[in-house]
Every structure is written in C-alpha cells, then in structure tokens.
C-alpha cells in the first residue's frame, strides 16, 4: 500500500519464516512449505490467495543473490507494516531486476524492483522446477526404452489460477541409467508468471522390484536353488540373466550362500562404461516330502557318512 510518497514495508524474511542469514536451501525449503500451505487450490483459509502471492513475492526477491543484496541494503531495522520511503539512489541497487505492473505483486515490490523495467513487457518469472519418482524395470535399464507415463501437471487457467491436469508424456529411458539419477523433462514443471517460461520436471529413477533379481549398483544378485546332491557332487545348472539363461558350474562341495560370479551379466554401464556382474547366490533346498524308498536311501547315507557338520 502507498501512502503519499511512502510505502508499507514488507519483511520478506518474516513472510517466509526464515532468518536474515538463511542460506539459499533454507529459503527454498521455506518457500515450498509455505506455497503448499497457502496454495489457493489446497488451502481453506480465506486469505490464502493473498498469502500465496506474498510468499511468491518474497521468494522471488530472496532467491536471487543480486535482488537479495539490493533488498538487504534497506537494513534490518524496519518492521512489517511500517511506512517506508526508498532511499535516494535506490534505483542503482534495484536496476536490472525484472519486473512490471503485470506481476500482481505488491506496491512495495513494484516500487523497489520494477521501476527500472516498466514498459518492457511486464514482470516475467520462470516457474519452479518439479520432481517426481519414476520406477523403471531392470529390463529397461539393460536395453533402454521409450515409456509413456501419465502425470498430473500444473496448468495456469484463463483466470490465472493454477490447477492440475492429467497429461501423458513420452519419456526415453537411456541404457544403463542409474538408480537415483534424474531425467530432465524441459518445460513440464510449475507454470511461469506473467508469461514467463515453465520450470522443468525432473524424474528421479528408482528400480522397480524384480521377481528374480535385486540390484546393488550395477551388480545383480539372484538366489539360485540347488539340490543337496548338486551341492555335494557339483553340477552344470541354468542361471537366469536379463538376456536369457546361461549355464554355470556349481563346484562340488558347495555351501548355501556361496556365490557364482557371471562377469558382465549385470546392468550395463551408461555411455560405454563397464557393465556390472551377476552373482548367483546358492541356496541348498531339501525335499519336503519323501517316498519310502527315498527315505531309506537318506537313512542309509546318514548311517554310513562320517560327515559331522557340527564338529
């Protein structure tokens, strides 16, 4: 609000609930928390829309190092709501900070940061980036894939309010993409303001659970069931991989938990990096039911064997 030549001072730090020496991460975290709280589509508070605009305005100033330094030139002796007149030469501090009457921000913001750019097309602010989780199959990591995904994305309506709409996106999964890696989808984040560009969408990759394998980095692990006689005598067995089954040799005298290493049969490395290995972890499985003849043979083995597993 303007009273004559005076403005009503806005304490942007107080609006976001952060200290004046808060770092960029703290400011961003506070903004996201407050924006969620007062978003007009979510909040039931009567003044949610105004509070939401205040939070956006505060973040717009404090997130940018140059505009924050300019704002901090005002000093910390002002209280929110006090009458305030910009000091002589203020325009030298504020010069170059984008703004304009189309922003919908307060008079305080406009006078301090927009006067140098009025008539230049209005205030344009890039939208915030968004992040979502994308579960991918191990087969897609091994071979690459083109996936169709459905997401709720924010869209600014004709009334200027943001609402969420379902949207289908085509996403390319590159060969060897790592767990936790992020895919950038340009322009699919939060909408900009005043005609500003949308932010970007970042899809954080997680490996979907697999019925046969578990991934640790680029290595894969598979629990391979073998019979007691295969463990004792050794055997040639089929081991599943992401490219089909291959034969591997179980050494005579193997124990449960012993690992067979299949080099290069894990997940491929991105951009030509070395592929991981596949480890077949031996699990000795005993029969649950025995015929009379089988039981007699086991009893004969027990009577004749000198093996004592407990010393």
Description:
- With 311 residues, the protein is of the alpha+beta class.
- It folds into three domains: 2-117, Helix Hairpins (Orthogonal Bundle); 130-207, HSP40/DNAj peptide-binding domain (Sandwich); 214-304, Urease metallochaperone UreE, N-terminal domain (HSP40/DNAj peptide-binding domain, Sandwich), CATH 2.60.260.
- 26% of the residues lie in helices and 26% in strands.
- The strands form five sheets. Strands 9-10-14-13 form a four-stranded mixed sheet.
- A hairpin with a 5-residue loop joins strand 5 and strand 6 (162-173).
- Helix 2 (24-38) packs antiparallel against helix 3.
- It starts with a strand and ends in a 7-residue tail after the last helix.
- 22% of the residues are buried.
Question: In which order are the strands of the major sheet placed?
Answer: 9-10-14-13
| Count of separate DSSP helical elements | 9
% residues in beta strands: 25-35%
State the separation between the terminal residues, measured CA to CA: 88 Å
- State the helicity in percent bands: 25-40%
Q: Which CATH architecture of the largest domain would you pick?
A: Orthogonal Bundle
The arrangement of helices and strands along the chain is EEHHHHEHHEHEEEEEEHEEEEH
The CATH class name of the largest domain reads Mainly Alpha
The CATH topology of the largest domain is given as Helix Hairpins
Low-confidence stretches: 1-5, 88-103, 115-123
Gyration radius (Cα, Å) is 32 Å
Number of strands: 14
Going by helix content, strand content and strand pairing, the class is: alpha+beta
What would CATH call the homologous superfamily of the largest domain? DnaJ domain
Number of structural domains: 3
Mean pLDDT score: 81
Largest sheet: 4 strands, mixed
Shape: elongated
